Automatic annotation (TrEMBL):
Pfam hit, one: GILT
Family of this protein: Belongs to the GILT family.
One Gene Ontology MF term: oxidoreductase activity, acting on a sulfur group of donors, disulfide as acceptor
This protein's record includes keyword Ligase: no
Keywords carried by this UniProt record: Glycoprotein, Signal
Protein name: Gamma interferon inducible lysosomal thiol reductase
Domain of life, source organism: Eukaryota
Listed InterPro entries: Interferon-induced_GILT (IPR004911)
Signal sequence bounds: 1-16
Amino acid sequence: MLVLLIAFLFPLLVQSQQINVTIFTESQCPYCTKLLREQIWPFYVNRPGIMNLQIVPFGKGDCTYDYNRNFHCTCMHGATECDLNRLQNCAISYFPRRHLGLVTCLQGLGTLREGFSKCLSRLSPNTQRKLIECATTQTGELLNYYSMVNTHRAGVRIWPTMYVNGVFFDRSYPVEHKLCEHTAWC
């Protein structure tokens, strides 16, 4: 009976200890790469289940809609950044709860092709095909558009921008310390 009670209550306790984290990034921003690779990914690996993470890859840019009903996005660091943002957005769309490893792998790479070969190689051929198709079509561009809308609505002006439980965090001290202020699971 005690085991049953613990099995029932444990998910409720973990959920109540989760921290909502939103990070606005750009795929070729060196500061975003440093944040994801050196702080967010290690925290996620060492303390799984604590973060309810939302990553919004777009950055400083804009999307337009043409007369043929196609979106065209431009990004601060150029076309390659838009390509990689698209692939990150596709990964988030296809793996809503398990995308951080793939997004982090893609972060800071030089080309979309490098992203395909370095980060998609461990996925099934069918999943690879779906992600490549998404990243190279209007499906991915629409996802970039949605990220642009969310970025503009949030009024983001610097990258990366991070919110913890809805409150702006200036990253003046390690992310781990900030996140552990909000949970007893550290």
